[in-house]
Amino acid sequence: MEQLKNYINGELTEPVSKTYLDNYEPATGEVYSQLPDSDERDVRLAFGAAKNAFESWSTTPLENRMMILMKMADGIEKRMDEFVAAESKDNGKPKKLSRAVDIPRAVSNFRFYASALQHFASESHQMPGVGINYTLRQPIGVVGCISPWNLPLYLFSWKIAPALATGNCVVAKPSEITPYTAYLLSQVCIEAGLPKGVLNIVHGLGNKVGQAIVEHEGIKAISFTGGTETGKRIASVAAPMFKKLSLELGGKNPTIIFTDCDIEETVKQVVTSSFSNQGEICLCGSRIFIEKSIYAKFKEAFVARVQSLKVGDPNNDDSNMGAIVSLQHKQKILSYIRLAEEEGGKILCGGNELKLDGRCANGYFIEPTIIEGLDYKCRTNQEEIFGPVVTLTPFENEEEVLMMANSVKYGLSATIWTNDLKRAHRVAEKVEAGIVWINSWLVRDLRTPFGGVKASGVGREGGWEAMRFFTEAKNVFIKS
Ligand code: NDP
Q1: Which residues are identified as catalytic?
Q2: 3-class DSSP state of 417
Q3: Ligand 1 geometric centre to CA of 315 (Å)
């Protein structure tokens, strides 16, 4: 059985404990590799390596730093097929999705921040007759990056690339559920000539490795993407230590559909925004609000289209949806579907786990599920399910839909479907979310701020926001 290794001080290493955890393929339910069961001793080694590397990396000429990040992007691209297959096998997502989205995006993350570092400038403020201020943007030192399982390499690299670009050294932990592409990345780092210790990848459990990264007194900033409860725990440790914190957390995103939308196009797009990656994208819309006058028409077309989605082996190009990431997560999603029924919801399609034949007979599959008839305040409509489950709710007018959309504790993203430009602007302004798409979903420009409000997070990633997060501003005044 293949055993993945940590990447510490430029080398692939065994965990200090010499013990390993099983890594499952969700589409088959079988263990296919093992990952290090690391602990705080490995984190200490990683920190030591990162600290030693910092002086040299933070003073490396920008052009050289850029070239290495570019080589990392090239290295992933050269092994595209291997990365695509690994991401799909580890996570359960259709291979065609990891080929179209996950891996190309990881390549873009490194290229984007490699070029950003050459353009990142700081401000100066002149005081006529008095002097001038200039602001240095200095790397923080050793920083921690912790990422989830839903878009494994995509989100891992989204943190690591700006952290490295700004001259920091990194101790990073991918999700224990999807470690494989981070392991491949460590091989790419070696091939690309990333100096020893600049990036260290420690595999293992959140409450051991993740916790040890957050608690380490020498790690000065934590960039975390994951669940809101974990984010809360991390903040309670890191805040009293005065660490910089970026938290990208859960969501319960509203999809708001007005009568004047282009209904055919909206149905098509909303199927994608609801069920892509089995609904396991923090930006998926899970509460669909439809203006009353088109409720019946939308529902009929939406249900018909969802029923035509094929849930199947992630290796097959005709599968629209693959497997749920783990047995535990599959059970959590199914328990929410049962809860929805108890709360009075009517299941319009799906609602059950799916048993496939052959290779995937023991895999974790769930039918895409649509539920109607629920109160907007019930638990199904308030709590994050993070799976292929959406609810339909009719509304009378803008005021009512905004009240329902904003009734959750989350505020990550929202989509608005209308051809009335003024209405689109009005609703976008009032909806409580960090990201709003109008007549579209998941169109990403890496320069834009990314993140949520309320329980969906603190801070923003993307573009200059990430470059600022991973640097400390120091103002210098010179008297004239
Ligand atoms: P978790 O919060 O369970 O885990 C995220 C990461 O944190 C994992 O690497 C996990 O390790 C680690 N971790 C767990 N406990 C601790 C701890 N005590 N200290 C430090 N690290 C810890 O989230 P999931 O992996 O289940 O991901 C799904 C969640 O992520 C959803 O809520 C989703 O909405 C959110 N998400 C948010 C995004 C955003 O941009 N806002 C984007 C994508 C997902 P381990 O895997 O070993 O438990």
Answers
A1: 248, 282
A2: strand
A3: 26
pTM of the model: 0.96
DSSP per-residue string spanning 353-374: EEPPPGGGTTS-EE--EEEES-
Mean of all residue pLDDT scores within the chain:
98
pLDDT in tens, 86-109: 999 999 999 999 999 999 999 999
Give the pocket of ligand 1 (CB within 6 Å): 146-150, 155, 173, 175-177, 205-207, 210-211, 214, 225-227, 230, 233-234, 248-251, 282, 384, 386, 412, 452, 456-457
Contact yes or no for 208/16 (Cβ under 8 A): no
Is residue 286 within 8 Å of 274, Cβ to Cβ? yes
Question: To test ligand 1's pocket by mutation, which of 230, 243, 286, 446 has the most ligand atoms within 8 angstroms of CB?
Answer: 230
Residue 397 CA, ligand 1 centroid: distance in Å? 36
Q: If you write DSSP's letter for every residue of 85-132 in order, what string do you get?
A: HHHHHHH---HHHIIIIIHHHHHHHHHHHHHHHHH----EEEETTTEE
Place of tokens 């608690």: 215
* 463 Cα–ligand 1 center, Å: 22
- Testing ligand 1's pocket by substitution, the residue of 35, 146, 228 carrying the most ligand atoms inside 8 A of its CB is 146
Residue nearest to atom 35 of ligand 1 (CA): 226
DSSP state of 390: E
Nearest ligand 1 atom to the CA of 412 is 41
pLDDT digits over 424-476, tens only? 999 999 999 999 999 999 999 999 999 999 999 999 999 999 999 999 999 99
CATH T-level assignment (fold) for domain 2-249+456-479: Aldehyde Dehydrogenase; Chain A, domain 1 (3.40.605)
| Separation CA 389–CA 368 (nearest Å) | 6
**CA separation (Å) from 226 to 36, 280, 376, 421?**
21, 12, 25, 34
**What is the token pair recorded at 120?**
């990142």
Fold of 253-445: Aldehyde Dehydrogenase; Chain A, domain 2 (3.40.309)
| Every domain of the chain and the residues it spans | 2-249+456-479, 253-445
pLDDT (tens digit, 9 = 90+) per residue, 316-361? 999 999 999 999 999 999 999 999 999 999 999 999 999 999 999 9
